[in-house]
């Protein structure tokens, strides 16, 4: 039996810790919580449902999130939560339990877990692809791969970025019919910006490589010299930056544009 050390009030936003993440729900009184049960237990996606406070906490306890401003309070929050009972559109990146609670209270679609996770993942992906690029560059020096050409440089820079852009758009900026028009429009513009970011990042890298080094241009020797120059004297380091920079640009421009469009649409 879970020991409850605090007494929530109806319409409170509850947060229960799990391994690696937090689970969220709306307390509706009488020891009951409405939550998006997706990944609440055993990583099995589930619907919006009503459950007991003890089952919601799952032996992990909970805290109450305090809001300085709220669009809805009390019974209005509870009614909004009840209006989505049975919904089965859970997505950890775009429609999770925290998104659900934020919608109930502020009619917004936000998740701090996704926001911070996105920033961390961007750095992680850039690091992983950078390490992979070192291997490509080392193979290039041995003459195994023909990266020392304009086409090869473009592929090295663009393919990982486009792949990450596609994955980013299919998760973090994924569309859903549950979103309001403002959210859907902001995500749509953000998805476009992600691909623009991948293209701009790739073009910028090619231009930087071409203009750097002791040999200017996109000849084989020019590319090798440029990669070495932007890598601080290391061909492998230059290749790593050539892979990582468009990825970071794609994710940052896509997510940043999404947040900016949403901000202005909401504010004005």
What does this structure look like?
- It is built from 8 helices and 5 strands.
- By secondary structure, it is α+β, with helices and mostly antiparallel strands.
- It has a 5-stranded antiparallel beta sheet with strand order 4-3-2-1-5.
- Strand 2 and strand 3 form a beta hairpin.
- Residues 128-149 have low confidence and may be disordered.
Question: How much of the sequence is in beta strands?
Answer: 5-15%
Low-confidence stretches: 128-149
Q: Report the helical percentage.
A: 55-70%
Number of strands: 5
For the report, how would you describe the main beta sheet?
Answer: 5 strands, antiparallel
What gyration radius follows from the Cα positions, in whole Å? 24 Å
Structural class, judged by helices and strands? alpha+beta
Count of helix runs: 8
User: Largest beta sheet: what is the strand line-up?
Assistant: 4-3-2-1-5
Mean pLDDT: 78
Distance between the termini: 49 Å
Order of helices and strands: EEEEHEHHHHHHH
Secondary structure: elements and pairs:
Layout: E1 13-18, E2 21-29, E3 32-36, E4 48-52, H1 53-57, E5 63-65, H2 75-83, H3 97-106, H4 112-141, H5 150-171, H6 181-211, H7 220-230, H8 235-267
Antiparallel strand pairs: 1-2, 1-5, 2-3, 3-4
Helix pairs in contact: 2-3, 4-8, 5-6, 5-8, 6-7, 6-8, 7-8
């Amino acid at each position: 039996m879970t020991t409850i050390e605090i007494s929530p009030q109806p319409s409170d936003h509850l947060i229960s810790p799990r391994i690696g993440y937090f689970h969220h729900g709306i307390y509706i009184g009488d020891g009951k919580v409405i939550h998006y049960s997706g990944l609440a237990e055993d990583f099995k996606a589930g619907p919006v449902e009503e459950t007991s406070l003890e089952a919601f906490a799952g032996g992990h306890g909970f805290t109450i999130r305090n809001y300085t401003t709220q669009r809805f309070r009390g019974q209005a929050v509870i009614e909004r939560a009840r209006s989505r009972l049975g919904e089965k559109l859970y997505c950890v990146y775009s429609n999770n339990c925290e998104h659900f609670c934020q919608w109930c209270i502020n009619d917004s679609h936000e998740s701090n877990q996704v926001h911070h996770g996105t920033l961390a993942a961007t750095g992680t992906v850039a690091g992983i692809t950078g390490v992979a690029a070192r291997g490509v560059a080392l193979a290039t020096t041995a003459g195994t791969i023909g990266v020392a050409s304009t086409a090869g440089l473009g592929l090295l820079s663009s393919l990982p970025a486009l792949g990450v852009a596609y994955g980013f758009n299919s998760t973090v900026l994924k569309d859903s019919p549950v979103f309001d028009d403002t959210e859907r429009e902001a995500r749509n513009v953000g998805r476009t910006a992600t691909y623009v970011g991948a293209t701009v990042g790739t073009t910028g890298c090619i231009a930087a490589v071409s203009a750097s080094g002791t040999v200017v241009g996109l000849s084989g020797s020019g590319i090798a010299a440029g990669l070495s120059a932007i890598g601080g004297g290391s061909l492998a380091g230059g290749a790593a930056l050539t892979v990582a920079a468009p990825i970071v640009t794609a994710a940052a421009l896509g997510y940043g544009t999404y947040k900016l469009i949403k901000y202005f649409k909401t504010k004005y």
